[in-house]
What we know:
Elements: E1 9-15, E2 19-27, E3 33-41, H1 42-48, E4 53-59, H2 61-70, H3 79-86, H4 92-102, E5 110-113
Antiparallel strand pairs: 1-2, 2-3, 3-4, 4-5
Amino acid sequence: MAAFEYGETVLFEGYDGVECVRVTCWQAERGGLVVTRRSAGELSQWCFGESPHVAELSFDVAQTSALARYLNVEREEELAAELAIEFSGTDGWTRIASVMRKLPLWENYFEKIA
């Protein structure tokens, strides 16, 4: 996944005057994928009892490959760009999690709320 070699890829970043949201992804060890949503503001405080709030999805190499196939990405180094196209918006992290639940091996992905 060469696209991830230089750090994280921003899938979405926005601020509406009340809430700041940033969704990113990067290559994990051994070819996996990590997608993180960071939010800060009144909504995060109300929903999660904390601000800032961080939520993380971690996928192993098999799950990352399944996601690439699902998105019809021929080369894994194109996955970050495709994620940015398909899952832009404040709900990108949630939509990625929903897609992963539809794919084989979904029950093994790791969801961390920090």
